[in-house]
Every structure is written in C-alpha cells, then in structure tokens.
Amino acid sequence: MEHEVFVPVPVERLRQALGDPLRVARAVPGLQQDAGADPVAGRLKVRVGSHSITYRGAVRVSARDDGSYAVEGDATETRGTGSVQLALTLRLRDTDGGTTLTFDGTATADGRVTELPQDAVGSAVVRLLNRFAEALGETEAEAEPQQPTDEPEAPETVAAQVAQAVETPDEPPAPVVDDFTEPVGPPAEAAHARRTMIGRSAEEVDHAPPRGRYAPVPAPQTVASGAALRWAAPAAAVVLASAIVVGRALRKRR
Predict the structure, then answer these.
(1) At what angle do helices 118-143 and 11-18 cross, to 10 degrees?
(2) Domain 2-142 in CATH: superfamily?
(3) Is the dihedral of CA 157, 162, 163, 167 positive or negative?
C-alpha cells in the first residue's frame, strides 16, 4: 500500500512530534491507552463499512538513518481470534506551505476483517492514516509556544502620551452644568404660589364635610309637621263650633 497526506506544518516540527511517544499516542484516532503500558498501546476500534472491530495492541515509531520512520504494529481482536500486523515506512517531504507524509508498506490480517469487502477495508485504512497525520499536526501546533504579538509600551512612552494629550487637547472642554442650582426670579414666585395653593386646597379638604358613604345622615325635618299642627288646631275648633251651632238650630226648629 502507498498513501500521501499533506499537513500544513513544517517538517522539523513534525519530526519533533514523531520523536515523542506521547504525541504519537494522542494522534492515533480513538486510541484508549492501557494504564501502566507503553504510550502507544491500548484498545482501538476500527470501523469498516457498517461493521466495527476492536483491537488491542501496540504501535512503535522509530527513526531511521535516511530520515524516514519505521511504523510497526500488531494487535488482536478483543472478541475473536483474528490479528493484524503492520509494517510501514513513513517519509516526510518539505512542501510549499507544509509537509507531505508518504506511507508505504504492507499489512497482513486474519479473522473478521478478511470476511469484509476489500474496498471497504482499504477505505478504512486510508481514513485512519489521514486522521493520524492531521492529528499529528494538531498536537504539534498545540505544543508550539505562543509568541506575543504586541509588546507593552514603556512607562515613559505612556506618560509622554498622556502629558501631550493634556497639554494639547483636540477639543475644548465642555461647560460644566450644575443640575442642582436652584433657579432665581419668577420661577421662585411661581413655586411659592403653587405651594400656597396646595396648602389652601389641603386645608379646605380637611374642613370640608365628608361625602359618599361616610356622609352624616340629616336629621328629620320637623318644621313642616309643626306648621301643620299649628294650622290644624284652629281649623278643628272652627269645625267643632259649627257643629254645635248647627245642632242647637235643629233643636229650636223641633
């Protein structure tokens, strides 16, 4: 097999990442490291088409004299007897804007993976190598120290700028307006008249009789009844006298 991947990272930085087993382990996609084991050792789930196979094994990356790297690995199925052996050569080539990684070598396997379509197996291997190369560049970018872009100005420079801004202002200062100054003249008289009217209205309200449901019930008026009794007594006397006279007249006729 042979496959190439471009990574936008310089060659020297990728060499530093490949020389660190911890960075290599972080670059293997989906690797679950075993506690106390080698950095690049643990469980790895590989998806082939609609199937998933989990392997347990280890990968070793070693530098060669010609500048290339030997990538060797072996693993076995966690639920089966199948195994995989990997022997690849990794070369780095300086490219405009980054580095081109070339993988070539062989891989042998038995077990469940041999029962799956070969094109699906090839696609799974290419996807795994692409993700490994991209993650290797990302781990190197994270390890790169951040350089400050702007240097702080010296205290003398800041003081000089402040002094210059104070001595030569761009715009005249705005007049200060005191919002709490009391007006003089007619507004004071108007306020006095308003307070007088308010006090007078309050006084009238205090002395005014209550209205509504709390108004007092007026006393019964006895003037009309007294006047009626005053005129009814003489009238009754006249009627009584007339009755007596009429009675006497009738007796005389008899």
Answers:
(1) 100
(2) START domain (3.30.530.20)
(3) positive
